[in-house]
Amino acid sequence: MIRVVIAEDQGMVLGALASLLALEPDIEVIGRAPDGLAALDSVRALAPDVLLSDIEMPGLTGIEVAARLAEEGSPARVLIVTTFGRTGYLRRAIAAGVCGYLLKDSPADKLADAIRQVARGGRVIDSALAATAAFAPPDPLTDRERAVLRLAQDGQSNKEIARALELSPGTVRNYLSEAAAKLGASNRVEASRIAREQGWL
């Protein structure tokens, strides 16, 4: 049996994925996680073969979960299933050690086959997205610029961002300015929008 943990913050989607995979004779859903931190804890506790994860979740994104598992040397293989066909997400996911990347509008049988292939040690990437990513611009942001932009996008002030990331307000301002300059944006709002559209947040 292929043991799977599902991480998805939308309850109906989480239930639907679990029900769908329950129909497969060789796949067992052993855990469900409603956010990134719970996903990390579930993988550590249950040691699944595959973590099936969304990208945008509270706490940690699916990409951040994959990166942490890779740092810890976890044998669990991560398969991203998302609505976001953004090349920036795909590139960051691959860099984080993700083994598969599918869009949620893929056929149901393709998901089960992807889980099997990933569990066997293979890789599965949405073909149309992979072709687009080959010609997309690279992500210009550093991890720190990305973290600052993500909080700025949520409407937090420089002082609030500084407190959250344990930086000085001046350093936060510098990161925001550098990010805006790299993205050709006139302010933090525009910089956040551009970065999100490209999948760089």
Report on this structure:
This protein is of the alpha/beta class. The chain has 2 domains: 2-133, Response regulator (Rossmann fold), CATH 3.40.50; 143-198, Arc Repressor Mutant, subunit A, CATH 1.10.10.10. Helices cover 53% and strands 14% of the residues. The chain is built from 10 helices and 6 strands; from the N terminus they run E-H-E-H-E-H-E-H-E-H-E-H-H-H-H-H. It has helices spanning 11-22, 36-46, 62-72, 87-95, 108-119, 127-133, 143-153, 158-165, 169-183, 188-198, and strands spanning 2-7, 27-33, 50-53, 77-82, 100-103, 124-125. Strands 2-1-3-4-5-6 form a 6-stranded parallel beta sheet, with helices on both faces. Strand 4, helix 4 and strand 5 (100-103) form a beta-alpha-beta unit. The longest helix has 15 residues, at 169-183. The radius of gyration is 18 Å and the shape is globular. The two termini are 35 Å apart. The model has no long low-confidence stretch (mean pLDDT 91).
Uncertain residue segments: none
- Please report the number of helical segments: 10
* Count of extended strands: 6
Order of helices and strands: EHEHEHEHEHEHHHHH
CATH topology of the largest domain: Rossmann fold
So, CATH architecture of the largest domain?
3-Layer(aba) Sandwich
CATH superfamily of the largest domain: Response regulator
Distance between the termini: 35 Å
How many domains? The number is 2
Strand order of the largest sheet: 2-1-3-4-5-6
Structural class: alpha/beta
The largest sheet is: 6 strands, parallel
Instruction: Give the class-level CATH name of the largest domain.
Output: Alpha Beta
Estimated share of beta-strand residues: 5-15%
**Helical percent range?**
40-55%
Classify the oligomer.
single chain
| Mean pLDDT across all amino acids | 91
Shape: globular
Q: What is the CA-based Rg, rounded?
A: 18 Å
